[in-house]
Amino acid sequence: MKKSVGPTETKYFTFAEAQGFELESGRGLGPITLAYETYGQLNSEKTNAVLVMHAFSGSAHVAGPVTADQDPAWWDFMVGPGKALDTEKYFAICINVIGGCKGSTGPSSVNPKTGKPYGLDFPLVTIGDMVRAQKALIDHLGIKKLHGVIGGSMGGMLALQWIASYPGTVECVIPIAATLKHSPQQIAFNEVGRQAIMADPAWNNGDYYGGTPPEKGLAVARMVGHITYMSNDSMEQKFSRRLKDDNTGFKFSADFEVEGYLQHRGQSFVKRFDANSYLYITKAMDYFDLSDAKWIPPEGLPGTRFLVIAFKSDWLYPSAQSQDMVRQLQMKQIDATYCEIDAAYGHDSFLIESEAAKQSHLIKHFLAKRK
User: Angle at the Cα of 208 (from 206 to 212), degrees rounded to 5?
Assistant: First the structure.
């Protein structure tokens, strides 16, 4: 059995104290704090760094045991000694995005101008803004070129944005279950979640800190989102139409096992995530657009290789979107490999340990290959 990385420490990097950080919207933000974790050792040449991007509701805690102040590690089966991202070879870094609520500056952070949480005074941020903030930390660590950037879902968008914003700074790019832009359907699902939050009276136009948060609205938003992360086959296998053991007749309660499961997921989510961050991050994902190959420099991307991974059962980010990504890269004569995995768990397959074997094999060998 492969070892865990062992106990880890969340670190913090603060920048843009004086001048501020200009966002794509034109507004400034600062100071900015980024929460991040590192795994393994940076070599003397600083050439073995791999930036791991978390998905929408993730944190910087990718691997290792859980402590009182950390979320469960979301990719422990992927990051560690001897694993796909081998921490005996690579220096893995994960940074919580700005706009989040896992230690980095976001709407729940204190606005230095008012001494109160930002709430809706926090400016809208984009995927591009998130990556530029990450670049400030990578520069601080003295890393000139990343060996790799890797992530699933929103993490894949961040990986792609790194190449769009900083071509030539990454050798290996691995977007998993990702897209170059949201379709109208993907935007629609996010909007339903946002409207559920804003319809909760406790949301109070984003000013709920210090009071009762909009737990009901956020729980419904998560329930809607979670349905899209699964596949019909996995839900049939896990729940089918089974009734709960305590079912006593027809009533408007969680009679079916799938109803109880979704309610549990929603109630668990509100304990670990901020409703305003849900609004800001989903909006950033909706604004993301690298379509029409405009993100690829005219001279191409010499020295950069892509491994694009999709899952057959993913209907939220269908494989056609990944195939379009690869098509654009190959039309520009860029080294791009496409792998579609027959996994049963839908969009969340990249986070499921039982589905990790094929994904891990691909990633491990792709990272190890050097040009």
Answer: 140
